[in-house]
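Work package 3, deliverable 3.1, input record:
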Amino acid sequence: MKDVLVMNETRQSGQFVVPGQKLGIIEEFIPNSGTFVENGVIRSKNVGYMLMDFANKKVSVYPAARNLNVPRVGSIIVGNTTGVQSSLAIIRIKKVGSKIISGYFTGVIHISDVSFRYTDSMFESFKLGDLVRAKVISDKNHTYHLSTKGEKLGVVLAYCSQCGNVLSLKGRGLRCEACGNVERRKIASDYGEGTL
Amino acid sequence: MPKKTKLVNSKGIRTDGRKIDELRPVKLEVGILSNADGSAYIEQGKNKILAAVYGPGEVHPRHLALPDRALLRCRYHMAPFSVQERKSPAPSRREVELSKVIREALQPAIFLERFPRTSIELFIEVLQADGGTRCAGVTVASLALADAGIPMRDLVVACAAGKADGHIVVDLNDIEDKEGEADVPVAYMPNFDAVSLLQMDGILTIEEFEQAISLALDGCRKIYALQKEALKAKYQAIKEEVEGAEEE
């Protein structure tokens, strides 16, 4: 290729770049997020704005298009319960980290991953429609395996299984204001606060 | 095949008034569909093609998921009203083949290994066809992918060249494609100088073939400039809107 060396005058921070566009060479910069290196040339892999950090000798691309988020091992997700079985709960993942995703992924929580303590019954930990915060612990076997072990993980919003109203916190359990029904869940520490 | 029309006249002007090395007018627009994750639209001469992208998302059926990379699914489809005589909306043999060919032309440009066990779905909808839809399809599809924020090595551009009435011409239209002697569609990654799709229909000598390739690549480079402009146009408009709102 003829023009491996990028001309300095046409390059500046904040410049609009498209995928494949040259940002520099590895001798000048450390490639940072939004970039990739091929044959010693640093290129953008996103549509976005180039940021040149001369103090740290780094170049990155701030994405202008949608920021993608896919569940990975370790990420905190929020989703709805779509099914509960004696040893499994099925979660439809709607939010990964701080981003609501388009579409959804499916994850499962095994009864052994519900809490640090012994779990009596899956049916008393999650119910259909509950909003659950969980952590991805594995992505093997074509599913995301989730865990709600930990104080901040578990049900963040639940509905009454009798009348469908939102349950509110009552001691260590949940109570329906409308019909007085009392239920149990694996509750997250910030239940009902609306902080996802 | 009996010749009905003169494709290139004595002055070297083609049926639609173009010179032999002239592209049809290309209009590109990015992000015109609000429900898809990424979208783009192209008008190349009389061609009108929409592309939309969803993903990365869950793979259905599950067993198709790949453990080390994303599954790229592509559907090239022609609307029943895209051609003179109503086309059956069911995918034809040709559409199935073009879907595969377009998928394989785009695949090397996408960082599929970044999203294992997911699928990226691409829909190319031909609203009006006038020859060279696979090339225009590749061109819009790569814009739709970029608009969806999917990390890519490069944009992919495609352009065809071929032979009509003994002349090597670029960007064939429908008549030239059907009545001409040969058609060579080329998809190209401009920053890597790499060809990701090369087909040939018809007969060319080696010299003619080389000439056709170089014409097609020149065409690709011209369309690439337009692709960059189209992306810039969308995001520049958004940036200005945001900055304008901040000032108020």
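Chain B is about 30% helix and 30% strand.
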